[in-house]
Amino acid sequence: MHGKKNSISLDGLSVFHPLIAQWFQDQIGSPTDVQNMAWPVIARGENALITAPTGSGKTLTAFLWALNCFVTGKLDTGYTRVLYVSPLKALNNDIQRNLLTPVDELKRVFKLSEENFPEIRILTRSGDTPQSERRRMLRHPPEILITTPESLNLLLSSHGGRSMLTDVSTVILDEIHSVVGEKRGVHLITAVDRLVLLSGEFQRIALSATVRPLETVAEYIGGFKSVGDLHAPIYQPRPVTVLKSKSEKKYKIRVKSAENRSMEQSSDSIWDSLVHEFKKIIDQNRSTLIFVNSRKLCEKITYKINYKEEQPIAYAHHGSLSPEIRREVERKLKAGDLRAIVATNTLEMGIDIGALDEIILVQSPF
Question: Is the dihedral of CA 263, 267, 271, 276 positive or negative?
Answer without folding.
Answer: negative
